[in-house]
Amino acid sequence: MLPKSSQRVGEVIRIANQIAREYDREYVGTEHVLMAIQREGTGIGAAVLAKRGVTADKLRDEVDKLVKKQLEETWVFGRLPGTPHFKNVMAIAIDQCQKINAKEVCTEHLLLALLKERGSVAGKALKSLGISYNDARSDILELTSES
């Protein structure tokens, strides 16, 4: 049985759609999900980004550097179509959630999935900002053990 998504993840996806529209995109990409995690600001994913010094301005600058004009093949997820990377990130987030027996997919699972998805704008931005999968996972374990 697949885990359900937390209300916070639903809000992140809503914000990602909004950010995609701000960029005048007709798709939701990993970069929009990453920026939405940071903008939503209350999840463990956002806490990890803040702990690693990722501000909204730094993130937007990095994403803007990486975004290319050509659109990838898209698929439909919610209101705007998502890129293939976006689809993969959602599947990886579910897998990350299941591996730790969490009850629902949360922002920390999205963040880990963004770090695992090779070739995505968000993955490249995070790498450029100095955030690795192992560092984020360590931060997440530390933050979730504190709760």
What's the CATH topology name? Double Clp-N motif
Count the beta strands: 4
> For this structure, what is the CATH homologous superfamily?
Clp, N-terminal domain
Instruction: State the assembly state of the protein chains.
Output: single chain
Number of H- or I-type helical stretches: 8
Determine the strand fraction and express it as a percent band: 5-15%
Terminal Cα separation, in Å? 26 Å
User: Per the principal axes of the C-alpha atoms, what is the gross shape?
Assistant: globular
Biggest β-sheet: strands ordered side by side in the sheet: 1-4
Mean pLDDT: 83
How much is the radius of gyration in Å?
A: 14 Å
Strand-pairing-aware structural class = mainly alpha
Compute the number of structural domains: 1
- What is the CATH C level class, in words? Mainly Alpha
> Tell me about the biggest sheet?
2 strands, parallel
Which segments are poorly predicted (pLDDT under 50) over 5 or more consecutive residues? 69-78
Helix content: 55-70%
H and E string: EHHHHEEHEHHH
The CATH architecture term is Orthogonal Bundle
Polypeptide structure, described:
With 147 residues, this protein is mostly helical. It has one domain: Clp, N-terminal domain (Double Clp-N motif). Helices cover 64% and strands 7% of the residues. It contains eight helices and four strands; from the N terminus they run βααααββαβααα. The protein has a two-stranded parallel ribbon with strand order 1-4. A hairpin with a 2-residue loop joins β2 and β3. It is globular and about 40 Å long.
